[in-house]
Amino acid sequence: MSASKMNQNFQALKAAVDQLESKVAVLEDKLSAVGPGQKALASKEGAMGRALVRWDGSTLSVDTNWSFNSSGGNITATRDGTGQYTVVFENLTDGNLPYGTVVASTRDDTGVRCDSWSLKNEGTWQPNVRVLVECRNASGTLTDASFRLLYVR
Hints:
- The chain is an alpha+beta fold.
- 21% of the residues lie in helices and 35% in strands.
- It is rod-shaped and about 85 Å long.
- It has 2 domains: 1-40, no CATH class; 48-152.
- The chain has 1 helix and 9 strands.
- Strands 1, 2, 3, 6 and 9 form a 5-stranded antiparallel sheet that branches. It has a 4-stranded antiparallel sheet with strand order 4-5-8-7, with no helix packed on it.
């Protein structure tokens, strides 16, 4: 093989390696943007959010140590009334993709049951995912409580 041909093959190999390294760097940036100790979802069309929403008797807050949004966006929670809450995962959807699945449960064993009853990621909420949650005591009366929420698409 001539030196010229070897040099041509080497340059082609170098270009392929450089291109691969560039792709790896992009993927590493995506993984590092998720957060320490957390992994990005394998598919760009997949999404996951989880929230621990705490009620201390007068204040509602999202536990940022436990909660997670695969888009890297914020998670907010508001109390709409006794036992009624709205949780928003910012930038968690891309267009009108299928809704996904959401599950809510109480944080503690208090006899209160929390359920999600509405999931929206379209229209004025796009690109955010909005989940409405209600918590009720054993007699069915709306009551304030801490709860956990999991959204997967």
